[in-house]
Design a protein that fits this description.
Protein name: prephenate dehydrogenase
EC number: 1.3.1.12
Bound molecules: nicotinamide-adenine-dinucleotide, prephenic acid
Number of strands: 9
Family: Belongs to the prephenate/arogenate dehydrogenase family.
Largest sheet: 6 strands, parallel
Helix content: 40-55%
Enzyme class: oxidoreductase
CATH class of the largest domain: Alpha Beta
CATH topology of the largest domain: Rossmann fold
Pathway: Amino-acid biosynthesis; L-tyrosine biosynthesis; (4-hydroxyphenyl)pyruvate from prephenate (NAD(+) route): step 1/1
CATH architecture of the largest domain: 3-Layer(aba) Sandwich
Length: 310
């Protein structure tokens, strides 16, 4: 856990979080831990989630409507599935103070920027994506250190106010993240490879194993502590969130999937024709990738208490 900040500086005194699931509740926890002078108002479309957030004292206040939640906000952080960003933004339009900055945490950026720009004409919108999460969802899954030493990619639209970009970047740095600026389209192509495709592969392999249960039932259960278990963790990720990610980042995901399928076919051929050297070289290269991630200190830093499998 980071030590709490003592000054607000360029930061925000009133933060509103819309969507109090894994990421929204983590933002709320982190703001309360790192920005003790700031108030956090929360809102979620699901009344049960609002009740849980209230019972947990997650926020300074949980509002009954989206409009009431933003009435005096300086920063609004939209933490809803990417397919719901447009409607969540439309619901705050009439009550948003003129000076407020709107940001979001969506896993895809081009489609979200388009949806927010449509719903909130004239509003300062600085989208962002904290590249940190778990397979869990809901208000009880969040924790304050989720963003600690993780990337947060800020994807401002062309011509965005540099002061607003810096304020949103400083907000994420305050929550412990390392901030990088990127164009939305570029973000979507990079994340299609590093996040979206791996999830699709995990969903596929677990689904395939499940379909083959007749043959593999005992093996799936018995050996699931190994590599397969890592896939089942990813494949347990929220279905709504990931449906929206794949539909919102369709082009980039399909492009990367095409490339992946070609590479997979090459390995398939190498196995068929006993090309051991080719397999050895391919696996040596990927082992080096893993080692360089660890050397850069970017290995998985999630605390055990945030995990469902402990
Ligand atoms: N889960 C991750 O690992 C991860 C990581 C980084 C970014 N993200 C992004 O963060 C966002 C939230 O994901 P999450 O994992 O917190 O999901 P979640 O399912 O835990 O929480 C989403 C919450 O949004 C609420 N919601 C849905 N539509 C709403 C609306 N119109 N208005 C108000 N509330 C609404 C839901 O009731 C739910 O409580 C997504 O855009 C996702 O792409 C997720
Ligand atoms: O670690 C996990 O469980 C995640 O899936 C987190 C993960 C990722 O792919 O790294 C998932 C989606 C996000 O948008 C950002 C982070």
């Amino acid at each position: 856990m980071l030590p709490p900040s003592t000054t607000l500086g360029t930061s925000f005194a009133r933060v509103t979080v819309i969507g109090l699931g894994l990421i929204g509740s983590s933002v709320a926890h982190a703001v309360r831990a790192q920005m003790p002078g700031a108030t956090v108002t929360g809102y979620d479309a699901d009344p049960e989630v609002r009740a849980v957030a209230q019972a947990m004292h997650l926020c300074s206040d949980v509002a009954d409507s989206a409009g009431a939640a933003v009435i005096d906000a300086e920063l609004v952080v939209l933490c809803v599935p990417v397919g719901a960003m447009g409607s969540a933004a439309a619901a705050i339009r009439d009550d948003l103070p003129a000076e407020a900055i709107v940001t979001d945490v969506g896993s895809c950026k081009a489609s979200v920027l388009a949806a927010l720009t449509d719903a909130l004409p004239g509003v300062t919108i600085i989208p962002a994506h904290p590249v940190a999460g778990t397979e869990r969802s809901g208000p009880e899954a969040g924790f304050a250190s989720l963003f600690h030493k993780r990337w947060c990619i800020v994807t401002p639209p062309d011509g965005a106010d540099p002061v607003a970009i810096e304020r949103v970047s400083a907000f994420w740095r305050r929550l412990g993240a390392e901030v990088e600026l990127m164009a939305p389209d570029h973000h979507d192509r990079v994340l299609a490879v590093t996040s979206h495709l791996p999830h699709l592969i995990a969903y596929t392999i677990v689904g395939t194993a499940s379909d083959l249960e007749e043959v593999t039932r005992s093996e799936v259960i018995k050996y699931s502590a190994g590599g397969f278990r890592d896939f089942t963790r990813i494949a347990a990720s929220d279905p709504t969130m990931w449906r929206d990610v794949f539909l919102s980042n369709k082009e980039a995901v399909l492009e990367m999937l095409q490339r992946f399928s070609e590479d997979l076919s090459e390995l398939q051929r190498a196995i068929r024709w006993d090309k051991g050297d080719q397999l050895f070289d391919a696996f040596t290269r990927t082992r080096a990738v893993r080692r360089s991630i660890i050397e850069q200190g970017q290995d998985d830093a999630r605390p055990d208490f945030g995990r469902s499998d402990h």
